[in-house]
Design goal:
alpha/beta
Length: about 400
């Protein structure tokens, strides 16, 4: 009998969490498959992208809805820095609601769409609106579904290229787990090829496998605690990660746990008011030495306040006593940039959300069986837009 997250498959099936547990657990394998696919298709990718990237004043948008949008938020700071280009994270939901605001600049534009199914109404509409509003627009579609509407659109247009994530990434569970990290890794491998090597991806995969072996029990015990508020904090790319972690917690607990996110510096400006003795705070600590100082300052302040029910720091390295209290550290001496920490860090957050769902007697594979929230968003009416 297979075991996922320390639980037998038959038990997971009875709890309604079989797919989600499998999809969290399989991510290191999916990442190795992802880099292998990118390496295989690199000539085709370069043939499409190189002429686009050579254009003057090129604008690059990272877009998606929900979790897919947060993939862009995590990626944008890193890709802007390492490429010297302008990468902007703008959700498809914003583009569709206000295309005249977000698609006003008439410069060559590359839109990178993250889409698990490729069937979300906003994802399809955003691509069509971009073609309607922009004089020169190109699309790179990262999807987990080769039969989705976005993939079909790409096959009919020479200004579009779509890449399908490895088999198994199109999550059967409600929450995006494998799909989120595989699409994010694909973008990283394409636009930061110097760092995103087969060796680097294998290192991160091994680190995550070790975390799953060693820390599942820690997350399981934390999930048992009596709390009804959850706060995730992170800076730069880790702020995008914190937003995704908060959504994962909200989704898998069917809204029973109020979950929010912020940056460590921003948290003091009002949002800190959420903390009481039934609040768990998780802070993702930056690997950047300068930024890390602010992260540790906030962590120390929260501990001095002594109001939160539980505070957990997740970090790559030890700080020789600078960090007091509960901390999870990666078992690796190499220093990784924040974007690489996103992968093992989010798996820990997924595991925590999964077990809290179980303890609340909610089925992780389908936390909202009444249908108000669905795996693929429903009920969206796309209205005609007339360019002004």
């Amino acid at each position: 009998m297979s075991i996922y997250l320390g639980v037998e498959e038959s038990v997971l099936r009875d709890l309604g969490g079989e797919h989600t547990a499998k999809e969290i657990s399989q991510q290191p394998r999916i990442w190795r498959d992802t880099i292998a696919e990118i390496v295989k298709r690199r000539p085709e990718i370069n043939l499409f992208l190189n002429p686009i990237l050579a254009k003057q004043k090129l604008r690059v948008l990272l877009s998606g809805a929900g979790t897919s949008a947060f993939a862009g938020k995590a990626m944008a700071p890193h890709l802007s820095r390492v490429t010297g280009r302008r990468f902007e994270a703008i959700s498809t939901t914003d583009i569709v609601a206000s295309p005249a605001d977000y698609l006003a600049e008439q410069v060559p534009t590359l839109i990178i769409s993250f889409a698990r199914s490729g069937n979300s109404p906003e994802s399809v509409a955003a691509v069509k609106l971009a073609s309607q509003c922009l004089h020169e627009c190109y699309h790179l579609i990262l999807t987990c579904n080769p039969a989705g509407e976005l993939a079909k659109l790409s096959e009919l247009a020479d200004n579009m290229l779509y890449l399908v994530m490895p088999e198994g990434s199109n999550d059967k569970g409600f929450a995006m787990t494998s799909s989120y990290t595989s699409m994010m890794l694909s973008a990283l491998c394409i636009f930061d090829a110097n760092q995103a090597t087969v060796g680097r991806v294998d290192q991160i995969s091994q680190l995550t496998e070790q975390l799953l072996d060693k820390q599942c029990c820690v997350m399981k015990e934390l999930a048992k605690r009596d709390f009804d508020r959850m706060v995730f904090l992170g800076s730069s790319s880790l702020q995008g990660l914190a937003q995704e972690a908060a959504l994962k917690f909200l989704e898998l607990t069917a809204g029973e746990i109020v979950s929010v996110f912020d940056s460590p510096l921003g948290f003091r400006h009002g949002p800190k008011s959420i903390i009481n003795n039934k609040t768990v705070v998780v802070e993702f600590l930056s690997s950047d030495e300068y930024t890390r100082q602010y992260d540790i300052d906030l962590l120390s302040e929260l501990r001095r306040d002594n109001k939160a029910g539980y505070i957990l720091a997740i970090s790559q390295k030890k700080d020789d006593g600078a960090i007091k209290g509960n901390i999870i550290e990666l078992d690796d001496a190499e220093r990784y940039e924040n974007i690489w920490l996103c992968f093992p860090f989010i798996v820990l957050a997924q595991v925590l959300a999964f077990f809290k769902s179980i303890y609340l007697q909610i089925k992780p594979d389908n936390p909202c069986p009444s249908g108000e929230v669905n795996r693929i968003v429903q009920g969206v009416i796309i209205h005609d837009f007339q360019s002004r």
